[in-house]
Amino acid sequence: MAVFKSDIVEDLYEIGEVLGSGHFGQVKKVRERATGTSWAGKFLKIRRKGGSLLGMDRTSVEREVEILQALKHPNIVMLKDVFESRSEMVLVLELISGGELFDFIAEKDNLLETEAIQFMKQILEGLRFMHSNSIAHFDLKPENIMLSEKVSPQLNVKLIDFGLAYRFHQGQEYKSTSGTPQYVAPEVISFEPLSTAADMWSIGVITYILLSGMSPFQGDTDEETLRNVVAVHYEFEDLYFKTTSSMAKDFIQKLLVKDSRERMTAEECLLHPWIKVNPPILNGMIVAVVCVCGVIFFGWDNCCLFQPITRKQVANRNRSSINMRNFKRFNAKRKWKMSYNMVSVCNRLVNLRLVCKHRSDTDLLQRQCESDVEDSESNPSSMLRRRLSSSS
């Protein structure tokens, strides 16, 4: 059950500058009076029963708060405090100043696979913890993978935005059509019962993009993208994967599997030879089994899950790099699309307000604005759109 504080947020925190704005509130920098520590305060307007239809649904915020309060992990954004009043909720979250991981990578001139693996490993560590608590994220994409800081001896990845996350309970079935088209699993589109395996599909898509700068299922329209996902229609074109190791491709192929039961789990991903970059070391010696044929096992635990790898494969992975030129192009296009969508939504909301004011039709404004920014899950065949959450 979500735990809220009845205190007044201003009594415990000094409210600072606005860091960002959404449809239902603002994110502000706040400073804890007792310690001087800076945090991010998310001030959300809450929809009141029998009142305006504008604002966040209280139940949705409570679900997200309950999930975040259960997830204490170095690779998951931390929720410190939650305050509530009659019309507003304030979530005090860890202040993440490093920006998006993809933006950080796009600033580099080159990146080896072994460097990219270190980021993927942190994402998987966060997912493993999440899934071990029966929680699925359901909205994994570049925008929700951040860095705590850009300048640090150890770059720390953080998973954010748990607005679509769900905690599974034994014996209960869960279905949803929420998500972002190019990252959702086939079972989401088909409106089938979901599991944590849907997150692993998204990891496959993210890895594909990270290595090649191409989206595996992206079509000219959302409808075409969704058809490609359901058909699991993708390939490793030499033009984009010329510098990609065979181990990396194998990792992706074990995730982009239509049958969710056949996908690797987060635990299995961390044991995959591509992710397990360095073999365990004991007293300065590599702990590995080398067969007479030259085959290497990185520890006994891999023997049961994966095919053995050769010295040549290890060397190939260590010198492989991501397609940086294409990745930069993909990231620039992604950022442009995000900006365009935000401006487009804002313009539609402004126009609706002007029309409604002219007609003096407040009810129409409320209905149209709500439908403009929130999606219905009642029609599984409808276009998948990212529902706005308290982390938006």
UniProtKB/TrEMBL annotation:
Keywords: ATP-binding, Kinase, Membrane, Nucleotide-binding, Serine/threonine-protein kinase, Transferase, Transmembrane, Transmembrane helix
Species of provenance: Oryzias latipes (Japanese rice fish)
Keyword Phosphoprotein included in the entry's annotation: no
Protein kinase domain segment(s): 13-275
TM annotation in the entry: 281-300
Pfam family, one: Pkinase
SMART domains: S_TKc
Similarity comment text for this entry: Belongs to the protein kinase superfamily.
Region (Disordered): 373-392
InterPro entries given in the database record: Kinase-like_dom_sf, Prot_kinase_dom, Protein_kinase_ATP_BS, Ser/Thr_kinase_AS
The enzyme's E.C. designation: 2.7.11.1
Gene3D superfamilies: Phosphorylase Kinase, domain 1, Transferase(Phosphotransferase) domain 1
Domain of life from the UniProt record: Eukaryota
Name of this chain's protein: non-specific serine/threonine protein kinase
Keyword Membrane appears in the UniProt entry: yes
Ligand binding (ATP): K42
Gene Ontology molecular-function annotations: ATP binding; protein serine/threonine kinase activity
Top class in the EC scheme: transferase
